[in-house]
Amino acid sequence: MARSMWKGAISFGLVHIPVEMYPAASDQGLDLTMLDRRDFAPIGFKRYNKATGKEVSWDDIVKGYEYRDGEYVVLSDEDLRRANPEATQTIDILAFVNAEQVPLIYYEQPYYLAPGKGGDKVYALLRETLREVGKIGIANVVIRVKQHLAALVCVGDTIVLNTLRYPDEIRPVDELKIPAADSKAAQVTDKELQMAKALVEGMSEKWKPQQYHDTYREDVLALIEKKVAANQTKTLTEPEPEEEKPAKTNVIDLVSLLQASLGKKPAKAAADEDDDEPPPGKSRKPAHRADDEDSDETPPPRARKAPAHAATHAATHASTRASTKRTTAAKSTSAKTATKTAAKRATADKAPARRRKAA
Predict the structure, then answer these.
(1) CB atoms < 10 A from the CB of 102, how many?
(2) How wide is the angle at C-alpha 244 spanned by C-alphas 241 and 250, nearest 5°?
(3) How far is CA 94 from CA 7, 13, 18, 97, 168, in A?
(4) CA distance 42 to 35
(5) How would you class 290 by CB atoms within 10 Å of its CB: exposed for 0-12, middle for 13-18, buried for 19 or more?
(6) Domains, the chain, with CATH or none
(7) Helix 190-202 to helix 254-261 angle, to the nearest 10 degrees?
(8) Phi and psi torsions of 279, nearest 5°
(9) How far apart are the C-alpha atoms of 320 and 323, rounded to whole Å?
(10) 60-117 pLDDT, tens per residue?
(11) Which of 20, 142, 165 shows the shortest CA–CA distance to 87?
(12) What is the DSSP-derived secondary structure letter of residue 247?
């Protein structure tokens, strides 16, 4: 079990809860050692006396405060404790506030608080109270030689003390170019907002911290194993010359990016929204006249992908044109037949007249 780094008590009102503090986070970064590139020997650092130049061991090192140039007041751990015993041994709760009222930017470093000897019941009382009321405790605590503002938060069955930054430790954003809500350059359309919300909804899931891990650290360790296996432990990889990248434009097609993120091709979306209207600058060829018998059949158009409603429209148009041609042809045939019949009747009527004249 980890060794406690601080022992004291939580205090609010007349309640006194003995607790021990443990680090709640550990650094899992890459532990790289600095080497001399000439022989790859490790580089060491010495604690030395600046007056004599001799190395100093940890046992001979004490702390001091420089009150004048070159003059120091020596302070031991006991001196620091005696300066304010209550501050150095107590987590003093000042107030209880709603958790959502403290912005995340104020949170700094988490520590676990475990009950000390005889403190189980009062520890559980504070934990359950925080859980029920949905608030956090704002407290003062001295860790080592610095006083911290802190938040006591109920996390599961554990009370977590999270140190907070003071307001003057938060840098202002006045010098940053943050777009205002009513800025024309950063104006967001309803369509863009709806697509972004759809993307967020599609990527939403339950919080599962175990599925996240440091992939960069894993990749570096894999590279180290690869270099060891290839016997390239002393090989320095030099950077390759950078390729010229095409100039970037400041114009961002946000809709296309959102559509691509949603897995929807922009071209398809544009076709769906066209409603059979031709693109600007282009016009459809006029349909052939139905009564133009001398005109040839229109050659079939070049095969291309089209929306379903466009194909239906084309089929309907072709069917109507063919039906019109058939009707016209039928009318033409009927007219010719009627003309021939009329001619025969006229000939028959004229025949008796010629015969009477001849007699």
Answers:
(1) 16
(2) 140
(3) 19, 9, 17, 10, 19
(4) 4
(5) middle
(6) 10-25+75-168 (2.40.290.10)
(7) 20
(8) -65, 155
(9) 5
(10) 999 999 999 999 999 998 898 888 877 888 999 999 999 999 999 999 999 999 999 9
(11) 142
(12) P
